Amino acid sequence: MDKIQLGEFIKSIDQDLEIEEGKQYVEVTVPPLKLYLLAKQLRDKKEAQFDFLFCLSGVDYGQDLGVVYHLRSTIYDHTIVLKTRTSDREHPQFDSVSDIWKTADFHEREAFDLLGIRFTNHPDLRRLFLDSSWGYPLRKDYVDDINIVTK
Amino acid sequence: MLLDIITNNSITAPSEPWWKVVYDFSSLTKWVDTSLHSSMSSFWATITEMLIIGVLILLFYALVGLFLVYAERKVCAFMQNRLGPNRVGPFGIFQTIADLFKLLFKELVPIKNADGFLFNLAPFIVIIASFMAIAAIPFAKGLHAIDLNIGVLYVIAVSAMGVIGVLLAGWSSNNKYSLIGAMRSGAQIVSYELSVGLALITIVIMAGSMQLSVIVEAQRDGWFIFKGHIPAFIAFIVFLISSTAETNRGPFDLAEAESELTAGYHTEYSGIKFAFFFLAEYINMFIVASIAATVFLGGWMPFHVGYWEGFNHIMDFIPPFIWYIGKTFFVIFLMMWFKWTFPRLRIDQLLTLEWKYLLPINLVNVLIMAFIVLMGWHF
Amino acid sequence: MEEEVKNITPDERQEYVINMGPQHPSTHGVLRLVVSLKGEIVKNIEPHIGYIHRGIEKMCESITYPQIIHLTDRMDYLSAHINNEAVCLNVEKALEVDIPDRIKVIRTIMSELTRIQSHQLWWASFGMDLGGLTCFFYGLRDREKILDIFEETCGGRMLVSYNCPGGVMYDIHPNFQKRVKDFIKYFRKILPEYDQLLSGNVIFHERSKGIGKLSLEDAISYGVTGPTGRASGFSCDVRKHEPYSAYDRITFKEILHTEGDTYSRYIARIDEMWESMNIIEQLIDNIPEGPFAVKMKPIIKLPEGEYYQRVETARGELGVYIISDGNKNPYRVKFRSPNFVNLSVFNHIVKGFKIADLVAIGGSLDLVIPDIDR
What we know:
The complex is a heterotrimer of chains A (151), B (379) and C (374). By secondary structure, chain A is of the alpha/beta class. Helix content of chain A is 24%, strand content 26%. In chain A, strand 4 (65-72) and strand 5 form a beta hairpin. With 379 residues, chain B is mainly alpha-helical. Chain B has a domain at 111-375. In chain B, 69% of the residues lie in helices and 0% in strands. Chain B contains 17 helices and no strands. The longest helix of chain B is centred in the N-terminal third of the chain and has 38 residues, at 42-79. Chain B is globular, with a radius of gyration of 22 Å. The relative contact order of chain B is 0.13. In chain C, a hairpin with a 2-residue loop joins strand 6 (305-313) and strand 7 (316-324). In chain C, helix 6 (101-129) runs antiparallel to helix 16 (355-365) and helix 8 packs antiparallel against helix 13. Chain C has helices spanning 2-7, 10-13, 56-60, 65-72, 80-95, 101-129, 134-154, 176-199, 202-208, 216-221, 226-230, 238-241, 262-284, 338-344, 346-350, 355-365, 369-373, and strands at 16-20, 32-38, 41-48, 163-164, 167-168, 305-313, 316-324, 332-336. With 374 residues, chain C is α+β, with helices and mostly antiparallel strands. At the B-C interface, helix 9, helix 13 and helix 17 of B face strand 1, helix 6, helix 7, helix 9 and helix 16 of C.
């Protein structure tokens, strides 16, 4: 499917989703509650089959915290980007997609480690690189006096 | 015909050429023996003889150890497109001596929670086992510390004792890698001891004796590897494989497997205690190579081809000790060649190789050999 | 104490836990694996990473785009050139710069040379993992020849830093074409020697066939790319699917195997070396004339937006995800590193095999630890 067809396909799943035709990939913004269901449908629906999650990035947008999912279908070779964000900086929470794509396991642990985003239903959510007393370094408000990291 | 040769081998022919007399060490040892006995009581004479032999063997042991480490490094470098040691002395021949001094001066790191007594005992057991085995090896005619009538059995029994040291080292270090290494080594040596024994028995059947000097004498007119048809050759191959495994070397170095267990059973050892393990490995290799040379390749017997009188005389001219050393180092070179060429086996493959392949082959081989000897089909 | 014992199931109590790493000969860097054993059999492994975590993604947020390139060298140091290229391509794509053919061809040749030298080092260390120490010296001997070519043209040997946004740092050395051709001629003769030493060995076959099987479904689900994924039949070669640089104008095969075991991962990499030589041979004789770099602004500012560039490194798909807010330094950079993803499959494929197999499988995944930790 090309970009236009992909947009229409997403519309057919859910009317309310915000779809943007980016320069490179189709970008869909999903509210956190709808994320898991959409992800599952994207993987399972016969005409989409996004079976390869090739990148999962946590992003600090300043006010909000978000997660970006880059999905690709190995059968149709089309790509889509899912974006989700929350304004809760204290307890940011998203549904884990690690049971849909197993690779999300490590990616989500990384996002948790560096941005403090929690993923519910994750099988083993622990810090990956840093020890538990550390802050969340990829957040924009992270300050480290010793290593001279300022806002 | 052959039985005559075997039984009469100790009788020397009247027309011995001069070099045969010179190369025969038995007159020298007899002279030392009688002169000692004439000057002191027989008890002190025996003690003195023991001391002389002990010092000589110790010297030999150290020299062989040093040389083998150097040889291994050179052979390894040759296999790997490198130069090897080339800085200390000409061609780096003093490199191992420098290494020895380094090991001597290194700190003996004490291990917390290690079983101190066993930890210190283990290297000595390993080295004593290899030390004892060297006593029974005939280096040349008459150059033989102790000529037991069960020489083959003695060597097998004594050299296998080293595994106790390895097991103790692994257990007492209180290190998980060491323990795995030691357990592997135990399983490995217990299994491969069978093959070593059976391969030697094949030849013992042919020679009709377990005495190493008799076995060597029986090869006067041809080495057993040629005389014994295919069974002897198979026995040689099996012996080569299983003795490599028994010395924890080559593709069978699972006990120390540096890419899996860092250094296996001697991970926690340092300084001279490590050097003991290191040295014992090389001496064990030397011992099994000597046994292979003695039993299969005629020990110190020169290479003879039937009815080629001139050729045989030239061969006789080379001293027996050189023959012995040459054959031993040929086998050692083979073993080094294995080590630097093959990837390592896995523990279950190692045991499969022994129990499913080598052991049945060996048993059948012994049967065939017994049949051949019974029918007198060998040369 | 008593309660503690009760909580543990009998099966767990028999486990023998060893720490492999961070200092261990076969983890190739500071990877720590907590291995639960039952006898020799691996029950579970748990990778502990972060020993070489430098926060490259955080650092990138405070430096400029040309500076980022030099940090990417330090991720997967064996695919240094390809990592550089990924950032450059992303910046060029964002600025919509037209890159002349000469640059594209030079970059492609350098990438393929990088791939060959990376696989050579992998072959060397894989042989060593399996206990064949001689392999190490053979592999490094041949790798040295590529590094010499790099040194002549780029000045650097391992971390070349040859790319810059808009082209490459300097023009190729006058000797470059001749030396590359000499190398290809030499290596075509020497590569069968690798097969003689390792691939044809019975012990090697026993050690690698059927070990650590990774099915196609799992490979896709775990996102395992590169030769590791292609050995399981996962067609994931970015050079084919999203061609960049000069890959769209050359013909080459995507190496695909179906078994997914250690042996096919091994063969896939050996085949890739052959294929890389084919690619270089197609390009080396017709490097077009032209400038070696496009003039760029002294301060590079990416327009606001999000940019994603995928490239095929020696170990798999590297993704560079840049979010720009229009400043001279990026708002957020994410590197989707292939080794990080390939590590996640380790525990899945190693269960039930022996310690020696753990080492073999780890070697066949070809992990580079600084790329995992970033």
